[in-house]
Amino acid sequence: MRVWSSEHVFGHPWDTVIKAAMRKYPNPMNPSVVGVDVLERSVDSRGRLHSHRLLSTEWGLPGLVRAILGTSSTLTYIREHSIVDPVGKKMELCSTNITLTNWVSVSERLVYTPHPEDPGRTVLTQEAVITVKGISLGSYLESLMANMISSNAKKGWAAIEWIIENAERALS
User: Fold this and answer.
1) Cα atoms in the 13 Å half-sphere on the side-chain side of 50
2) How far apart are the C-alpha atoms of 167 and 149, rounded to whole Å?
3) How many domains does the chain have?
4) Neighbours of 108 (CB within 10 A)
5) Nearest 5°: phi and psi at 115?
6) Is the separation of the CB atoms in 72 and 66 below 8 Å?
7) Rounded Cα gap, residues 41 and 84, in angstroms
8) Which of 64, 103, 119, 134 has the highest CB neighbour number within 10 Å of its CB?
9) Which of 127, 139, 159, 145 is nearest to 59 (CA)?
10) Residue 86 sits in which domain range?
């Protein structure tokens, strides 16, 4: 098992970042997400928005990884659940893969909150737990996947900035 974590600060207020995060896909920074389906969306009695989505991704796994996993398919599915609390100003998003779970499990948690010292900025904390099961070179694969997650996180930050920038440009 390998744990990857990161923190990123956006130079935008929480409301702006959350609107962009909810519209994150598709984006040109991370074309591997090829589909997003909303399975369920509701507002609870406390005014929090709950969303369950299914993401279809084309990982483009290296040939060596596909050989180790014994699969030629690179299309994977991810289950995502998010809760947006507009009163408490917190968004929590949890996702996990539902493809290849016999070999690889990736659970990710993202939390967006206003910066404690500057309401004009937003803090994103991310953590991913990667577990490779029953495969030789499991530690190597966990390390490789942690590097992929780190790279994709940076693309995700850039995508949110791109969405905000394009929304502002459209308004002007």
Assistant:
1) 6
2) 26
3) 1
4) 20
5) -65, 135
6) yes
7) 11
8) 103
9) 145
10) 2-167
Does 54 reside within a domain? yes
Q: The tokens of 55 are what? A: 């993401």
CATH no. for residue 68?
3.30.530.20
Measured distance CA(86)–CA(22) in Å, rounded? 13
Give the CA distances from residue 162 to residues 30, 31, 84, 104, 121, in Å, rounded to whole numbers and listed in that order: 12, 14, 21, 31, 16
Q: Which of 60-69, 94-103, 130-139, 156-165 has maximum average pLDDT?
A: 156-165
User: With contact defined as beta carbons under 8 Å apart, do 90 and 111 qualify?
Assistant: yes
- Taking the model in full, what pTM does it have? 0.90
Strand partners, 123: 9, 113
Distance of CA 1 to the CA centre of its chain: 19
Tell me if 172 is assigned to some domain. no
In contact, 17 and 143? CB cutoff 8 Å? no
CA gap 97, 108 in Å, rounded: 9
Q: Estimate to the nearest angstrom the gap between the alpha carbon of 72 and the chain centroid.
A: 24
Most trustworthy range by pLDDT among 53-67, 118-132, 140-154: 118-132
